[in-house]
Structures are given as C-alpha cells and as structure tokens.
Amino acid sequence: ELMNLQGMISYAHAAEVGSFGGKEQRRAAFSPSGRWGQVILTLPVVIQRNGYVFVHAGLLPHHASVPIEDLNTEIHSKIREKNFLHPLLHASGPLWTRDPIQQAAKGQCSLITAVLTSLNALPQYAASPIVAIVVGHTIQGHKIGIHCKGKLIGVDIALSKYISVREHAGYADLTNSSNIF
Description:
7 helices; 5-stranded mixed beta sheet; 5 strands; 30% helix
C-alpha cells in the first residue's frame, strides 16, 4: 500500500483505475490525505500477536530496537510527511527489505536471531516473548516457507493471478506452533 500512498499506480489494472474516474482521482483517493490513504494509515505496518510479529517484508535489528508501536508511529509519520526517501520507507525498511528471508532461505539465521533477540530485550515482550517473524513480499514457491527452525515464516506463495497462473492456496496455522514446525 506504500506504493498507493506514493501515487505509484503503474501496476494497477486499467479497470481498477477507471473505477476511480481516472489516474489522478485514484492518486488523490490513496494519497495520505485521501479517503483510502487515511484508512491505510490507521493500520499498523508491523503487528505482534501471540508471540508472532507480522510484517510485510522484514525487520532488521535496528528496527527491532524500539517497541513495535513506536516503529509504526514513526513509519506513519514519515508517510504523512511524504518523506518517502526516509530509510524506514526505502529498500532497507520493513516494507521492502528482503535481507532476513533471503539469508534465512540460505540457512543463515544470524540476522533473524538478532532481530528476535533485540525485540525480546524490550520490556514489552518480557512476559510474552516473540518466537517468530512472519513475512510476505518474497515469493516462497508453492508453499509457505519455514526457516531457521521456525523463527522466520515466509507466507508469500504468489496467490495473485498477476504474479502466477497457478491455482493454489496456503495458510499457516499459528494456533498450535507444532503444526508448522
């Protein structure tokens, strides 16, 4: 959705753009001050639930050195300011970085371990430690990727018909961690 907020619509289907009345109307609707941009900015970029952290692309250790709520606040602030070149919104930010999943896919787990260690050092997570990070943004093939003994879960399996013509579905049942490890 960051691309929507930035006004980048080259990937959007023509019929979808037309449903807004054209390119400029769509850009306005998804701008940080537009109807849909304001809705998007009420949603967290990173969220923690029941020992799992969910993020679009990935977290690096310096992202994990602050509470998730503070990270979300900072990201939303930079979007509202239209400071799209800020590191949090750029290639090394939580919406774009593929470093953790790419390293984990090669069996290199030090980066994801450092992220989890940083998060779990924060007082907010002392009573309920973070056990894994769940990411999208990097296609795993036709099934969910479990990396680094379950510390990193890649859930992008190319469901969009614009990415893949394969018809498949997948899910990660996180209600009982023994189901996925």
